[in-house]
Input
Amino acid sequence: MLGQGKTEWAWETLNRVEQKMEKVSARSAHKIPYTTLDGVHDDRSDDANIAWWTNGFWGGMMWQLYALTGKMQYRQIAEENEQKLDRVLMNYNGLDHDNGFRWLPTAVADYRLTKNPQSKNRGLLAAGNLAGRYNSAGKFIRAWNDWEENTDDHRGWAIIDCMMNLPLLYWAYEETGDPRFRQIAVNHANTAAANFIRPDGSVNHIVEFDFEKGGMIKSYGGQGCGVGSSWTRGQAWGLYGFTLSYLHTGETLYLESARKIADYFVANIPESGLIPVDFCQPQEVTWEDSTAAAIAACGLIELAGAEEKIEKDRENQAEENNYRKHGQESVYRNAALRLLETLALMRVNWNDQEDELLTRCTAAYHDAEHEYSIIYGDYYFLEALMKLTGKELFIW
Ligand code: GLY
Output
């Protein structure tokens, strides 16, 4: 449970975000932004960029804000974002394991709120394509397609981020009753639990499997600083993703996996409360990734809630035996609050004439550019505040 003072903080911060986003969304109504240039959203809805993996988060922000306020402005923008993504559903090469990131916050969110049958159709098409990426020998979902500009063979590649795409399959199972969707999600989650999580609770970003016979071949550093390092957004995807698989299935393996990653993450939060791009980056490198902080906060809040539910069920059982346990503050929720309060104080741009919320986000350690705004940072910061105030539209 959140104490009174923290609840007030969460509401105040959420209201500030909504006041800013009302202006920002009016300015960016016909865009699908990824980042900002001099405080102005770019637009990834042109033909060259419409398949970009982050193109569901803007719609997701709009659905969250619509769920919060009922303002039609947000709903119309979300619907436009969803419709624009239909061009991707007709483009085989544009589809990949990130179908979850694109269609859960858009079509599936719409369907959850409005029961729009076209949105359900979109979500199921995206889920069917995601299920079709399953490699049955290796029991994993293939991450990326092969890119013309790159000679890597991606047929055996899976990445930790995919844990966040599995909820599209859980949703499709819940909607259709077809167990194939759940079976594929669970098999991938089991493979990830066995092959991505290291003994200390950190996770690999990329694992390559033998795509004919199965079995792990090796790991790659991916978007982190090197092989065996701890790319922080990858840790956050793993922490939140395993928590979600636990919420959808009740499997203890996923709860234990989420706890292991969470314990590692919490133990490595620097004194400043600001998250680096990689927990293993050299001390002299100061690059941050605010998206990792926001995503981890969402996962930690959900994990705290899952643990409290288990504890409550135990207490109810114990009460029947005349035994009462006192409530304890959750280490995970406290860590989430610390991350969010630090972001709100130091890494949110509150100027409503500029379009971004979070500053100092980084896509990848070895990229030429670091520390700019990224739309999924804004999305997860909003989602975390919605969770803390009990107002969240559950998207995953
Ligand atoms: N899913 C890719 C990333 O987190 O950058």
Notes: The first strand starts at residue 36 and ends at 37. The radius of gyration is 20 Å. Residues 167 and 396 are 5 Å apart (CA to CA).
